[in-house]
Amino acid sequence: LFQPAVSVGNVGQLAIDLVISTLDMTKVGYFYTDCLVPMVGNNPYATAEENSMELSINAEVYSLPSKKLVVLQIRSPFIKNKYRPFCQTLLSWVKSSKCARVILLSSSHAYQRDDEQLLGSPLRYLLTPDLEKAVGGLLQELNWKEMEKVAAYPGINDTEKVLHIPGGGITKLLFTESCSKGIQMAVLLKFCSEGDNIPDAFALVNYLNEWLQLIKGEVNTSSQWKIPSSWRLLFGNGLPPALF
């Protein structure tokens, strides 16, 4: 199961858009919850006029049986104080559906990194203990950096370290709950800032592809991913040619 966290820059959601569009995944259902702001819109992955008027809502499920892959796309923010009920419902569904692994695509505020997190790649990962046993060695071979813990009380007590994911939405809660429930979960995240986050989404989905090889092709390029039709006006109309 792939799913996004509703986090800074909506990077996880944009990356999931690329996965669904590129793999031409089929919508198989909805994830009903009262924890998300209600919304409805046109088909974000329309390929022709015939399917452009299909309706989409705030949480939908897509499937690709050939890769044993299910994707949950979330399109609206959480209602206040509804994080925990949503996580409980989601993890209950994960267990009842017998999902082997969960991969959460997320992001975190770049400006709140500590000194250690400023070094090297802006991409990080986390693995629950159950998944660490299975794939931890592989990710180390890829030279990936695990999300660093930071001082609980900076400048006062630098020895006590905690997991801190500012701007990550439900990321930390979902990860810690998965650890306690024995669920195999990986979190892939990117440090970023609000703005045009399409480049961040490409970086995150390439990071995912480096591990799972969803599509074959040149590593770390955006051309291998199919951009969904809903991105055409994602940041408004383009500038008039007369201005150039």
From TrEMBL:
Compartment(s) where it occurs, according to its Swiss-Prot or TrEMBL record: Nucleus
- Record bears the keyword Chaperone: yes
What's one Pfam family the UniProt record gives for this protein?
Answer: PAC2
**What does it do?**
Chaperone protein which promotes assembly of the 20S proteasome as part of a heterodimer with PSMG1. The PSMG1-PSMG2 heterodimer binds to the PSMA5 and PSMA7 proteasome subunits, promotes assembly of the proteasome alpha subunits into the heteroheptameric alpha ring and prevents alpha ring dimerization.
Organism source for this protein?
A: Chordeiles acutipennis (Lesser nighthawk)
Note the subunit structure.
Forms a heterodimer with PSMG1. The PSMG1-PSMG2 heterodimer interacts directly with the PSMA5 and PSMA7 proteasome alpha subunits.
Protein's GO biological process: proteasome assembly
**Family that this chain belongs to:** Belongs to the PSMG2 family.
Give the record's GO CC terms: cytosol; nucleus
What are the protein's UniProt keywords? Chaperone, Nucleus, Phosphoprotein
Question: By what name is this protein known?
Answer: Proteasome assembly chaperone 2
Q: Sorted alphabetically, which InterPro entries does this protein's record hold?
A: Proteasome_assmbl_chaperone_2 (IPR019151), Proteasome_assmbl_chp_2_euk (IPR016562), PSMG2_sf (IPR038389)
On the tree of life, the source organism's domain of life is Eukaryota
